[in-house]
Amino acid sequence: MSEKSPGPALRVPLLDLKPQYETIAPRVRAALEAVCASQQFILGPEVRTLEARLAAYSQSRYGIGVSSGTDALLLALMGLDIGPGDAVITTPYTFFATAGTIARTGARPLFCDIEPETFNLSAPAVRALIAQQCERRGGQLVHRASGTRVKAIMPVHLYGQVCPMEPLLALAREAGLRVIEDAAQAIGARDAAGRPAGSFGDVGCFSFFPTKNLGAFGDAGLCVAQDEALTEHMRVLRVHGGKPKYHHAFIGGNFRIDELQAAVLNVKLDFLDEWSGRRQHNARVYDEAFARAGLGDHVVTPRVLPGFHHIFNQYVIRVKRRDALREHLAGAGVGTEIYYPIPLHLQECFADLGHHAGDFPEAERAALDTLALPIYPELSGEQLRYVVERIGGFYGAAR
Ligand SMILES: *Cc1c(COP(=O)(O)O)cnc(C)c1O
User: What CATH number corresponds to the domain at position 364?
Assistant: First the structure.
């Protein structure tokens, strides 16, 4: 008999949606069947209910259900009339859609580096960009090198922790800029004053991609907004800009959320706080296990700002020899991911912005040493401790 090497002692996928679905399957099926029975698939009662509930959940006045998180960002930019000749200040260390949507409107992404402890947009870096690279021309802030009009700041609440907004809001007020929050990963996250993601700026953008804390059965998203006229404008742009129907003063798109997706989300929203609470619990289990394992020389665990309510869409550590560790963990049955391996200023499609390696050193460092570990709510303590043990094994063996 040949010796077969034993498989991993335990499997810990990065994400497994099935155990969560099992707990809510009867309710979800009933909600889906009700939509099927009604045959009302477009902007019906489930969408209106979801919009009202998520506006309230995010302490915002209005909700606008849309087809994805990406389209939420695009609709926000279009709603604020951002386009060719304009620029939007944002972070290079985020999912592609943040800067991708800015570029799709014809505007220029103006990148600023991140804070290394939270990975979120650095307010001092934004202040420096405005002070050193921009000037006022006729009441308008202009980015000198490109000649673009700076219109907005788009911070991202990365991994589920709110980007501290007070300093950014102050800069926006001083410079007359709009604020669009990319809250795709951060529904329910709050800052130390208890203010929720999405409620700070002109528009807050959420994604319900299945891997987010509130995940649809496909693509969906939502904008929250505070201004009635802006909300009405975005609602019109959501249906091709036609108002009344077939009369187009504006060019919009089809950015509608499906009634079926809204029905799923209305069921899941009842459980969101419980699920995010379990993610927070899992994060504490990790924190304590890492501390006990004495891996401080090799692993930096996530920093939660004092009083902040981090919803841990991702639990991201910084490590030495990241790629070798990732391979080691894959061999041990542990799923991981790199969010994100290439900062956006170094993406091929943005070569025309003229950036080089070294322009945003913190973002570039993060791209080299961050690793997301499994954190989804249904993980067991045994699985979490196994992940830390395997990481300890990797660095122990390397000592
Ligand atoms: C997921 C995500 C998006 C895009 O959302 P989709 O629903 O996938 O279009 C945008 N920004 C960030 C930071 C995200 O994580």
Answer: 3.90.1150.10
pLDDT by residue for the chain (399 residues), tens digit each? Answer: 445 566 788 999 999 999 999 999 999 999 999 999 999 999 999 999 999 999 999 999 999 999 999 999 999 999 999 999 999 999 999 999 999 999 999 999 999 999 999 999 999 999 999 999 999 998 899 999 999 999 999 999 999 999 999 999 999 999 999 999 999 999 999 999 999 999 999 999 999 999 999 999 999 999 999 999 999 999 999 999 999 989 999 999 999 999 999 999 999 999 999 999 999 999 999 999 999 999 989 999 999 999 999 999 999 999 999 999 999 999 999 999 999 999 999 999 999 999 999 999 999 999 999 999 999 999 999 999 999 999 999 998 655
Select from 182, 211, 340 the residue to mutate for testing ligand 1; criterion: most ligand atoms less than 8 Å from CB.
Answer: 182
Q: What is the pTM of this model?
A: 0.97
Give me ligand 1 centre to Cα 188, in Å. Answer: 16
The set of protein residues with a Cβ atom below 6 angstroms from ligand 1 is 68-70, 94-95, 97-98, 156, 182, 184-185, 207, 209, 219, 221
Do 184 and 38 have their domain in common? yes
Which atom of ligand 1 has the smallest separation from the CA of 94? 13
CA gap 371, 393 in Å, rounded: 17
Instruction: Find the 105 Cα to ligand 1 centroid distance in Å.
Output: 17
| Ligand 1, atom 5: closest residue by C-alpha | 69
Q: How far is the CA of 397 from the centre of ligand 1 (A)?
A: 38
One domain, residues 379 and 334? yes
168 and 241 share one domain: yes
Q: Which atom of ligand 1 is nearest to the CA of 68?
A: 7
Q: Which of 227, 251, 269 is the last residue of a domain?
A: 269
CA 219 to centroid of ligand 1, rounded, Å: 10
For residue 12, tell me if it sits in a domain.
no
Closest atom of ligand 1 relative to the 97 alpha carbon? 10
Overall domain count for the chain? 2
Looking at the fold, whether 91 and 221 belong to one and the same domain comes out as yes
Residue 1 domain flag: no
